[in-house]
Amino acid sequence: MRFSIVTPSFRSSAFLKLCVASVADQGVELEHIVQDAGSDDGTLDWLRADRRVKAFVEKDSGMYDAVNRGLRKSSGEILAYLNCDEQYLPGALPAVSDYFDHHPGVDVLFSDCVVVDGTGSFVCYRKVQLPTRYHIMVSHLPTFTCSMFFRRRIIDERGFYFDPKWRDLGDAQWVLRLLEAGVSMGILRRFTSVFADTGSNMNLSANARRERRILFDSAPWWSRRFRFALVWAHRFRRAAGGIYFQKPFDYALYTPGSLDRRVARHVAAPTFLWKSRI
Q1: N or C: lower Cβ tally within 10 Å for the chain?
Q2: In total, how many domains does the chain have?
């Protein structure tokens, strides 16, 4: 099996249908594992019968526990997790497969994503750069899990599962562990994924703010003191890498009004500014 995509699910039936469709049309060998915690919103009425997925319904102790459960059931060479309100763009997984083929030493790959609202309309773009330890601790994780992919060997040989004690920032804590262990990372400069800003994303919660404070407090004293210098160094790296510039582009995704066919959108004036997060 080339790819295993894991989707943690709970009461997200409408978005999950779009997510499943975006994985199913990638044109590569894959399994899509949906790990549902026992949704009671109608999800199970269709999920178990959908032949495009392998559905498992069982209680879990949070999103990262669900992801781990899915990873343990997986058989793919390349792994990823995609939340219910996220999608892959056309040709994403073939491009990821090609990158890994040409970069055998890279174990974790980050790529770019498009941020949309609940209807699929453009909000902003997010180009990624390789994360750095102290910037994550005092500021934020500059990558998106919807556009992150990793080789099976980092969990089979090195045990890099997610820590389920983290409810909202488990991805940041996971990347920090990878950085500390010297795991090889790469960048695919391509929009592979869609992140939906629904206004209720987990990283906006009170618990996410609490966990962000834990990360901040765990940083060395000098990085906390010189936090703004680290943030500006991060921004300079982004500017030097051309991340704040993007030509007009098109993307195609599934929307609530189009469950069986992608809808093409043109972005005439791309912006990196995420106005609702400023």
Answers
A1: C
A2: 1
Question: For the chain, where are the E strands, in sequence order?
Answer: 3-9, 30-36, 54-57, 78-81, 86-88, 108-116, 122-126, 148-151, 185-196, 249-255, 258-267
Amino acid at 124: C
pTM over 0.85: yes
Q: Where are the alpha helices (DSSP H) in 7-76?
A: 13-24, 43-47, 63-73
pLDDT band at 202 (very low <50, low <70, confident <90, very high): low
Strands 148-151 and 78-81: what pairing?
A: antiparallel
Which contiguous run of DSSP H or E holds residue 174?
Answer: helix 170-181
β-pairing, 3-9 vs 30-36, is parallel
Cα(78)–Cα(26) distance, integer angstroms: 14
What pLDDT, in 10s, does the model give residues 28-80? 999 999 999 999 999 999 999 999 999 999 999 999 999 999 999 999 999 99
Between CA 23 and CA 2 the distance in angstroms is 13
Angle at 178 between CA 176 and CA 184, to 5 degrees: 130
User: The domain that contains 126 carries what CATH number?
Assistant: 3.90.550.10
